[in-house]
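Good morning,

Attaching, inline, the backbone tokens for the sequence recovery test we're adding to the shared suite. The designed sequence is right after.
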């Protein structure tokens, strides 16, 4: 009987020792609105995805399409100042 009580206490200890759930972090709605507005008005994700998938196409290792895609990406990064 004593073994059962100790076993139950041992199994219940991790459940009882759980800390309370942390309070949620406040959301900066102004920042979220700014990011959404930028994405909607000046976003070019679909342009880049189109270029990389349809224009550059399949990029096999050491293939000409891979070289072309890499040159395009480097050129984009340089125009962005990266």
């Amino acid at each position: 009987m004593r073994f059962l009580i100790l076993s139950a206490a041992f199994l219940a200890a991790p459940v009882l020792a759980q800390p309370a759930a942390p309070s949620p972090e406040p959301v900066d709605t102004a920042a979220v609105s700014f990011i959404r507005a930028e994405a909607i008005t000046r976003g070019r994700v679909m342009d880049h995805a189109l270029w990389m998938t349809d224009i550059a196409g399949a990029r096999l290792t050491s293939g000409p399409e891979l070289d072309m895609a890499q040159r395009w990406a480097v050129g984009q990064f340089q125009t962005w100042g990266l």
